[in-house]
Sequence to fold (295 residues):
Amino acid sequence: MRNSPSVLTTLPAEWRHWIADNLARGCSPQDMAHSMAASGQYSMALAQAAIDAAQTLRNASAANLSSDAAAGSVGAAQQMPFIDLSSNRITLPDRMVDVLCVLQQPQVILLGNVLSMEECDAIVAHCSHRYTRSTVASETDGASVVHAGRTSDMAFIQRGEAEVVERIEQRLAALAHWPVENGEPFQLQKYGVTQEYRPHYDWLDPDSSGHRSHLAQGGQRLATFILYLSDVEQGGGTVFPGSGLEVYPRKGNALWFLNTDQQLQPDRQTLHAGAPVVRGTKIIANKWLRQTRYG
Fold:
């Protein structure tokens, strides 16, 4: 039974994600096996076998990537977008971006000076007459439906629709080391007083029949940019309940977080919410980065 990848498939998705995440963090396989056995759900032998199988798959994947890179293969494509944290300031072709705050797990990064005040105002003005009630993708059939937990208004800007949008698209692609064509269109959200978006995930659920049609349009949502286009007098923070983190809107800043782990599995630690606005108006632009070309 040891080292057989089929052992992994017998485990629920929650346990498979737990094993992958802890191996990625460098946790001791023996300690992980003891934790699984202590849960009372698995024997020590099965726990060790599952962890061994996950390690085998992980090592094989790493070896393949290394082999491709050494050969200079075109197929050695980068697997995940990322923000370069080697310095406190990131030099982009048209702008200097500040790294203001980093949460390691889940990875959440607050970036400053991503947009100018003029760019924020231009995007807001471009969509001023486009807003409709916000919707979510139905888990049943993938249709856009109104949801009681999301009370904002929304608008979309297609790629290349305006010069300012094209400029920002290119900037975010450079910042995330990810192709422009792998991004969804900007989705603006406008929140008035009391409006909110209750805790939710940005990743698409591969076990949901309604989300599968969206996954077919470019794969998983690997990462999220939230661009803050307005200041807010009170409330309206982006909240990560599991981490106790709340980020308040600051015009021109952007929040980045990964939605999956390195094995492209949805990360349940990324549960987040848009807290109710108490005073003022909150306007943001969401940009979701997909695995492959979107659409």
Notes: Confidence is low (pLDDT under 50) at residues 1-5, 64-77. Residues 5-71 form one domain. The radius of gyration is 21 Å.
